[in-house]
Amino acid sequence: MVHLEALLASHTGALSRLKTCRNPACGEAFYDRSRNGTRVWHDMKTCGNALNLRASRARRQHSPEPEPHAAG
């Protein structure tokens, strides 16, 4: 029965919306119900927020300080 459902899902495009959370510590499977099908976290509050915050801090740490604008 599972094989039949998988075959049906592959023909309707639903199989591409079955995903695993991008958080390596989580890996939970979820069905992406977003309009454009680009969701990557099973829950933004728990997995997405933490990883986005870490990535943002890492980018800020490695980026050069912006130079102050001269008054003209």
Question: What report would you give on this structure?
Answer:
The longest helix is centred in the C-terminal third of the chain and has 19 residues, at 44-62. The protein has a two-stranded antiparallel sheet. It is mostly helical and 72 residues long. The radius of gyration is 20 Å and the shape is elongated. It starts with a helix and ends in a 10-residue tail after the last helix. The chain has helices at residues 2-12, 44-62, and strands at residues 18-20, 29-31. It has 2 helices and 2 strands.
Terminal CA distance: 73 Å
Biggest beta sheet summary: 2 strands, antiparallel
**Quick one: how many beta strands?**
2
Q: Name the poorly predicted regions.
A: none
The coarse overall form would be elongated
Helix content: 40-55%
Query: What order do the helices and strands follow?
Result: HEEH
In summary, what is this structure?
Helices cover 42% and strands 8% of the residues. It contains two helices and two strands; from the N terminus they run H-E-E-H.
SSE order and pairing:
Blueprint: H1 2-12, E1 18-20, E2 29-31, H2 44-62
Antiparallel strand pairs: 1-2
Essential attributes:
72 residues; mainly alpha; 2 helices; 2 strands; 8% strand; elongated
